[in-house]
Design brief:
By secondary structure, this protein is mainly beta. It has 2 domains: 78 residues, Chitinase A, domain 3; 54 residues, Thrombin, subunit H, CATH 2.40.10.330. The chain is 5% helix and 39% strand. It is built from 1 helix and 9 strands, in the order βββαββββββ. The strands form 2 sheets. Strands 1, 2, 3, 4 and 9 form a 5-stranded antiparallel β-sheet that branches. It has a 4-stranded antiparallel β-sheet with strand order 5-8-7-6, with no helix packed on it. A hairpin with a 5-residue loop joins strand 6 and strand 7. The radius of gyration is 19 Å and the shape is elongated.
């Protein structure tokens, strides 16, 4: 039975909004999601829904955005001058297209991922929100192992 400290293996399908929502991701048959229950690695509402389940039990979990990765925060959109990204005095149009992920170093040394949100004449705007910020999440799955 799933409880604190147990290693859990699950297969799941994750969609936006509900059972008919667009597919975000899913596990492959040979690679279930494996995590230690109660270690803070998973969304709290996800773990709450799995608590007490056993192998072969199925689950459905709806997590509103506020309880998942939060709402999109405008403060996490930052504008940078293109000159900060010049390599050999040349701008790489392919690397800096809307939707491309740009790794950046935060002041504390942590590497964070910014997504190009807009390209302007002399600057770019990067979005540092979690990719699923502002999204309601819907999980369907099955417990395949508890150790």
């Amino acid at each position: 039975m799933i409880s604190q400290g147990k290693t859990v293996k699950v297969h799941y399908i994750l969609r936006y909004d509900g059972s008919d929502g667009e597919l975000i991701e899913q596990t492959r048959p040979e690679e279930p999601l494996e995590f230690v229950f109660g270690q803070g690695d998973m969304l709290p509402k996800f773990e709450t829904a799995l608590n007490g389940l056993k192998p072969n039990d199925t689950f459905t979990v709806f997590i509103p955005a506020i309880d998942a990765y939060g709402e999109e925060n405008e403060e996490y959109f930052r504008e940078f001058e293109k000159s900060e990204f010049l390599a050999d005095e040349e701008w790489d149009d392919e690397l800096f297209q809307v939707g491309e992920v740009i790794p950046m170093q935060a002041p504390d040394g942590e590497i964070v991922q910014g997504v190009v949100a807009e390209v302007k004449l002399n600057s770019i705007i990067l979005d540092f929100n979690h990719p699923l910020a502002g999204e309601d999440l819907y999980f369907e799955g099955q417990v395949v192992g508890v150790d």
